[in-house]
Amino acid sequence: MLSAPRLQIAGELTGPGAVVIEGGRIAAVLDHVPPASQDHLALGYGVLGPGLVDLQVNGFAGHDLVEADAAGWDEVRRALPVTGVTSFLPTYVTAPLTALLPAADRAAAAGAREVPGGARVVGVHLEGPFLSPRWGGAHGAEGRRDPDPEAVARVITQGNVTMITMAPELTGATAAIARLREAGVLVSLGHSDANAECVGAAVDAGARMVTHVFNAMRPLHHRDPALAGVALADERLAVGLICDGHHVAELMCRLVFQATPDRVVLVTDATAAAAMPAGRYRLGGHDVVADTAGHPPRRADGTIAGSALTLDQAVRNAVSYGLDPGAALQAASGTPARLLGRDDIGQLRAGGRADLVWWSDDLRPQRIWLDGQQQPDAGTRIAAAAGPEAGAGAGAS
After folding, report:
1. What is the pTM of this model?
2. Which entry of 64, 74, 244, 269 is annotated as an active-site residue?
3. Mapping DSSP to helix (H, G, I), strand (E, B) and coil, where does residue 173 land?
4. Can 291 be counted among the known catalytic residues?
């Protein structure tokens, strides 16, 4: 049994309370603290909450997931829980389907391996290849295509794709979104030049998220709201946000929080540069350079290429920008889990997996539990991984 002054229940911090664990699952969530016993661990401060869920991880801790071997995958899975992430979607940037679909198979195989202390792989996010040629961002042009029925059928048949980012203005996109939605794939809109009418049709067809709002899409304009405007206004859409102070300016992050307080999904778009010093890294098989630790890497032409953000830092940044701590934690746990249709992760509920994080008062991970097992070296790894604070603020790209 774990007790704490505060528990993260959905988007609120309540307490005191306790979580009862049996067989790797949450047996009960109590709104009081029972008398201490031998199996009772008192947490004298902070917050006890569910593990974080990151829907956009291209790489981490020096490894690009496109190129990582089995050992590299295992290192990524062991490194992520240090930042509070216990479940994640490996994410692949645009490439031909002949490369992307085998990569999804490798991700499934990596996730199926028993890795003590490793975050769980809960599917695959294809960030492409169905993207606008005008708003490719750091994505290469090779492999970009329209979502024709044959290509969509290949994605669905592959079976390991859980989420896909698509530009809704492409030929065949509305039908593709409906087909993917019916197959249980989460469709997120992004890398798009669509107008608001086109976006509305995509949402009607079943799209339910926006990939890294404001980045790699037609800019928000008061007479042309485009994808970003619909994201802020349409309550059917969750809004992915890279809250690192570089991809989106602090003021615009505040606007997102105010407009969509219960729809924000904090994501990292992390690359191999995350949790690493400045240097040269890889993203989707291409070189990128992070010239400052914690700052997003860039391609040779200066284009931002993913991030060096960790999800716990995104939560702290969001709180520093004015978001309520409970809402910030929810945006990185329960909201993304709900989008995936998962009720066993991302929340404190009876029957859910006992993937837990004990946070300090300033929202730094102190202890980690995976399937109810406290990770014995987590404190040491957390101390070793403590790096520069991302989010000092820079212009959005």
Report:
1. 0.94
2. 269
3. helix
4. no
